[in-house]
Structure formats: structure tokens, C-alpha cells
């Protein structure tokens, strides 16, 4: 007699179903999804500080408080901006697509805005003979030529054994070398270099460390001490040190003062940058999307800043009252915020991110001419990728 109790029951028939394809993600969507809100927030807040600092410039002479706040902000706002720029340049190796973005996103805007600012000065100051000097960056266009030099030398900083000591040495040597001259604003290029190199050496884990709660708490007394020191320094220190645009001898000091101030300002700028970044939100905020347009705010707000001096907006007596200074601060922040918005970016994209496909040869095998974006003029402000989100703190 046969026993069938261990016989497996037949499986039910499986009906064939059509496979559902995964949702299509466009290249533009992938780029948006890859953005880290922490860095967009940091860039937006840094550019607001830049604009506020420029708005405070004419207020320093009649207000020690305004001068102290000016020194405080100038101690770290550009170091923070440059450090983040270095972080996004850490993957720059000189590939053809990277070089094309560097030319179209940095060098060409430098030329465009160099001409635009000179023409604006000729018109705004009734000075039709004001010269255009290719090697003498006008006003805030120095940052573009500096970024070009820093980024084009990025591969070098990847291969040297001691990048930070070398960068600090270069900055210190430049600080007492007036013979370097003013071409390409080379003093600023070299004296701000350590912040860029340091940014290249950082990894996402370092920013996660900065975002820890204990770092934020420690930042509060550091900021307070910095504000007190800034107030104390107003009658005792030349604020030109913060610009890094001249050698010590040009400022009337001995050569060794350049070395001391170069290292001291680096340490001070780095400490305050860490404190600043510790308070940058890691989640999306109402201003996060504006972080993608900070280069627009930077380059365009200079026209407003210059016009306010040339056309004597600061001659109004109310501006130099406490309420007026607060008003100037709010206006400066509002103007640069407006200039970072999407409508403004669409209008001025031809100047800030010009399409340059026509200027370059088509890509050969082994890579896209424009890094896969189909556009050589993509913002170099995001070069290096923004792939790994920082954990919210």
C-alpha cells in the first residue's frame, strides 16, 4: 500500500505579470536631489554676511559698534565662503569637462563682470576714462580670479605630502612680499589660499563633527569673546588686515608683523568658521533653495553697494542713527536674498553661467564634454559634487 502523506502539494499557477519599469529620473532631477541642504544653507548665510559687511562699510567712522561688528564679520565671512569652495573642489583633477566648467563658470564671468563693473563706474561716477585692466580685478571680481587659480592648482594639493603647512607658508611669505605687486590681486589669492586647501582636505564626517551639540554650545562663548575682542580692536587694529590685499610693509608695519598676522588671522578665521558652521541648519529651510544662487547674489550686489556710495545714499542723517544702521543691515540682507532668487538667476544667467558649448570641441570617447549635463556652463559653484547629506543635528 502506498503512503503519500509526504508528497508535496502542487504549487498554484503563477500568472505572468508585466514588469513595471522604475520611474524615470532626469539628469536635472538627480542633480537637485543630490544637493545637500547644509551646504546650500551655509552658502546663503555666508553671502548674507558678505553683503551686510559691505553695507556696514560707510558706517564705521561714526560708530564704534558698527566698526566692531564689521571686524567681527570680516574675520570669518570670506574664510567660510572659501573653505566651502575648497570642499567642492576636492574632486577637481583637471578633466576636460571640469576645465570647461571652470572656464565657462569662473573665467568668462570674471571677464564679463570686470567689463560690466568698469562700465558701471564710468557711468555712475561720470568718469568715462576709467580704465579696464584685465589683470587688475575690480572690486569683488577678485574672488573669481582667485577661485580660478585655486581650482586650477587643486591637483597639485592632492599630491604634495604636506598641503596645509605648505599653503600656510605660502600665505605667510606673501604677507611680507610687497614686490609681488597687484596683478590678479595676487596677495589675496595667496593669503586666502590656506582656507581653500583646508576645504579640499575635509570630508563629510568633519562637517558632521562640527554639527555636534557640544560644538554649538561652545560656539556661543567663542562668538561672545570674538565680539568683545572686535570692539577692543577698533581703535587699535587696521581693518585692512582682514582684506589680505597688501603686504605688511604696505600697511606701515615691519615684515614680521605680516607673518604673525597671517597665522593669527588664519587661526581666528578658522575658529569662527567652525562656530558659524556649527549653527548652520542641516535641514531644509525657507532659504535653502537660495544657496544655489549665491554666486549671483555675490556678483550682483556689488552694483548696489557701489551705487550707494557714488550716489550718496549714506548722506541721509537718519542712516547714521541706531535705527538707521539696523535698517541698512536689513536692506543689505534683503537685497542679496532677492538677487539669489530663481527669477533673477534666469535673467542674469547669460552673464554668470553663460552657455559655452560653441567654444569647445565635442567630447570624444571616455567622457562627456560637460560632465553629462549637456551644458558646459553649469555652475562651477557646485563642482566637486554635493552627494552625501550631512546628518541633521
UniProtKB/TrEMBL annotation:
Residues 364-393 are annotated as: Disordered. This is Acyltransferase family protein. Residues 364-375 have a biased composition (Gly residues). Residues 37-341 form the Acyltransferase domain. The keyword Acyltransferase applies. Keywords: Acyltransferase, Membrane, Transferase, Transmembrane, Transmembrane helix. The chain crosses the membrane at residues 41-57, 69-89, 101-120, 132-150, 215-235, 255-279, 286-304, 324-344. One of its GO terms (molecular function) is acyltransferase activity, transferring groups other than amino-acyl groups.
Amino acid at each position: 500500500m502506498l503512503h503519500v502523506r509526504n508528497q508535496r502539494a502542487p504549487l498554484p499557477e503563477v500568472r505572468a505579470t508585466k514588469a513595471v519599469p522604475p520611474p524615470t529620473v532626469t539628469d536635472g532631477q538627480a542633480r537637485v536631489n543630490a544637493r545637500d541642504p547644509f551646504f546650500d544653507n551655509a552658502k546663503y548665510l555666508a553671502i548674507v554676511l558678505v553683503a551686510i559687511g559691505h553695507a556696514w562699510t560707510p558706517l564705521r567712522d561714526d560708530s564704534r559698534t558698527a566698526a566692531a561688528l564689521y571686524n567681527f564679520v570680516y574675520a570669518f565671512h570670506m574664510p567660510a565662503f572659501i573653505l566651502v569652495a575648497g570642499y567642492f573642489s576636492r574632486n577637481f583633477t583637471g578633466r576636460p569637462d571640469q576645465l570647461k566648467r571652470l572656464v565657462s563658470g569662473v573665467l568668462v564671468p570674471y571677464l564679463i563682470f570686470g567689463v560690466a563693473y568698469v562700465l558701471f563706474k564710468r557711468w555712475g561716477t561720470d568718469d568715462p576714462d576709467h580704465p579696464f585692466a584685465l589683470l587688475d580685478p575690480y572690486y569683488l571680481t577678485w574672488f573669481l580670479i582667485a577661485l580660478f587659480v585655486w581650482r586650477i592648482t587643486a591637483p597639485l594639493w592632492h599630491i604634495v605630502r604636506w598641503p596645509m603647512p605648505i599653503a600656510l607658508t605660502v600665505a605667510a611669505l606673501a604677507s611680507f612680499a610687497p614686490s609681488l605687486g597687484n596683478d590678479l590681486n595676487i596677495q589675496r589669492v595667496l593669503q586666502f589660499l590656506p582656507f581653500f586647501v583646508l576645504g579640499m582636505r575635509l570630508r563629510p564626517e568633519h562637517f558632521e563633527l562640527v554639527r555636534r551639540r557640544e560644538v554649538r554650545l561652545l560656539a556661543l562663548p567663542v562668538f561672545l569673546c570674538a565680539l568683545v575682542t572686535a570692539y577692543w580692536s577698533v581703535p587699535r587694529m587696521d581693518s585692512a588686515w582682514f582684506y589680505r590685499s597688501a603686504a605688511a610693509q604696505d600697511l606701515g608695519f615691519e615684515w614680521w608683523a605680516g607673518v604673525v598676522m597671517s597665522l593669527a588671522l588664519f587661526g581666528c578665521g578658522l575658529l569662527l568658521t567652525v562656530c558659524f558652521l556649527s549653527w548652520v541648519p542641516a535641514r531644509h529651510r525657507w532659504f535653502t533653495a537660495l544657496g544655489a544662487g549665491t554666486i549671483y547674489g555675490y556678483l550682483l550686489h556689488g552694483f548696489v553697494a557701489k551705487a550707494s556710495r557714488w550716489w550718496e545714499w549714506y548722506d541721509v542723517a537718519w542712516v547714521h542713527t541706531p535705527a538707521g544702521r539696523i535698517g541698512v543691515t536689513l536692506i543689505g540682507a534683503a537685497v542679496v536674498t532677492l538677487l539669489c532668487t530663481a527669477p533673477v538667476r534666469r535673467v542674469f544667467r547669460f552673464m554668470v553661467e553663460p552657455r559655452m558649448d560653441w567654444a569647445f570641441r565635442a567630447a570624444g570617447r571616455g567622457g562627456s564634454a560637460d560632465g553629462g549635463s549637456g551644458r558646459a556652463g553649469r555652475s562651477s559653484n557646485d563642482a566637486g559634487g554635493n552627494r552625501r547629506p550631512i546628518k541633521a543635528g
